[in-house]
Description:
alpha/beta, Rossmann fold, N-(1-d-carboxylethyl)-l-norvaline Dehydrogenase, domain 2, 2 domains, eight-stranded mixed beta sheet, 52% helix, globular, disordered C terminus
Amino acid sequence: MDNVAVLGAGSWGTALAIVLADNGHNVSLWGRREDQVNEINNDHKNEKYLPGVELPENIQATTQLKECVKEADTIVLVTPTKAMREVLGQLKKELSSPVTIVHASKGIEPGTYKRISEIIEEELPLSVLDSVVVLSGPSHAEEVSLRQPTTVTVSSVNMKSAEKVQDLFINQNFRVYTNPDVVGVELGGALKNIIALGAGLSDGLGYGDNAKAALITRGLAEIARLGTHMGANPLTFSGLTGIGDLIVTCTSVHSRNWRAGNMLGKGMKLEDVLENMGMVVEGVRTTQAAYELSKREEVEMPITQVLYDVLFNNKGAKQAVDDLMQRSRTHEVEDVSSLKS
């Protein structure tokens, strides 16, 4: 039995806390709002994020970060990318001995283009950081909280740490694989949110399955193109954190990024979409970061390009799809084989 701190009491953080609690671990869940923490502790519910789900009694919530992490052997970070450095800055003050950090957030930081594991290693000194493990894969929080079958991947440069985290989470409903390719796992999890925005936009425009299949397939090609350029193993993108996460995020109404894209396709403005969502849509910031990174690295990412124009340059959704369809002709097989170069 381990003591695990989960930082982030949204839908995904709470769902992972449920998995850990089901496995018999002592789980401390950190949230910012007193009313939410009281609801978790007194009613064993988190209605805003997981309505109708009863939480195990061995999940104890707190608004005090120091209280949350004081006895933790492992800390699970489930905070939005934009808040990651702020949370790590607070966390650094509360740690006195090395801990394993598991991050289950998906994004790339605009401006620095850093993956989350790189941000963690930059912000936390080696004196308190035992190892960093990434948890990613096709996993809607709503389904995980209902104990529906789910498979994910954990990745670390330290495979013993990855296997430790695998043992921490794995159970009959939540199957966990390991993968040593940290770059591929993180980039697959982050970049698929861009393609999910595109899939939602296509659906919002009233296009059919043909268009969505094309977006998913060509989206995977450009994810893999950038990923392998940055040093990832191309096989990772055919696995759970590549095509698996891409499928689930592009085809489900549970997906925040799909829902945001769907509203954009129906003509809503970005600021209105984000206000309507009421939750972080990681794909928006990731589109900006990936677009800028692709330009710096001279990697072609046409879907990311047009979505960037929709989000930040006021391009119309239909015009964006027309631009994709009217690109110069190319060869699919040559495009795929170029990933090896």
